[in-house]
Amino acid sequence: MANVSLYCALDARDRPAVERLAGLLAPAVGGLKLGLEYFCAHGPEGVGAVRAAGRPLFLDLKLHDIPNTVAGAVRSVVALEPHYLTVHTAGGGAMMRAACGAAEEEAAQLGVPPPNLLGVTVLTSLDADALAHQGIAGSTRDQVLRLAALAHEAGLAGVIASPHEIAALRAAHGPDFHIVVPGIRPASGAGSGKGDQARVATPADAARAGATALVVGRPITQAPDPLEAARAIAKEIAVAS
Length: 241
Ligand code: C5P
What we know:
This protein is an alpha/beta fold. The protein has helices at 15-25, 36-51, 67-78, 93-110, 128-133, 140-153, 166-173, 203-209, 218-221, 226-240, and strands spanning 5-9, 31-35, 57-63, 84-88, 116-120, 158-160, 178-181, 213-216. It has one domain (5-240): Aldolase class I (TIM Barrel), CATH 3.20.20.
């Protein structure tokens, strides 16, 4: 199995703290993920500061709007050279195709690598009950598989999915499809609490199931020693993959 990379989610607004964590964790992780909390507070300039840590960047903006608007937002962040950028698969095939086209065009124009676009399927904080309340019948897994097929067809590089869907997605989409997986919790010790994540697995199990990359936030950032926590998780992934 190929190497599975570990992305640490830096979900915070405190810019000096995020920059400090980025620098501290850079040698122990495969990449760093910035999401809406940080981006809404500090914008592209703040992203640039974290990029300075020298690790691949995952810009988790979960874009979801009409195709023209999402394409414009994608164009606006290509210059930041994120390795991964997220859009919501629920935006539909036309929106995802527009995002892909915009990423390719803008990257070619700027002479930078295009981001790998990932489709958010079903948030890992949602379970079957929550989906039922939204009027989505059937299992969470079926919904994830349907949305992933739509994403692949539209040209996305991969999807975000929970640990529980990795094996089925890998079987359906082959070895090159990126399956990036949050909802990771160490089996025991600091950071093993589920928090608001409903569909979780250990780093080793998710790596073995065939994930491309794992996203871990609070079990690292809230640990008494974040660098040690990141190293332990990276080691567990390396042994399993
Ligand atoms: O702290 P924790 O490890 O739960 O962080 C998981 C990260 O993955 C968060 O940044 C969250 O926004 C993100 N994420 C998720 N579920 C998705 C997509 C992204 O939890 N479907």
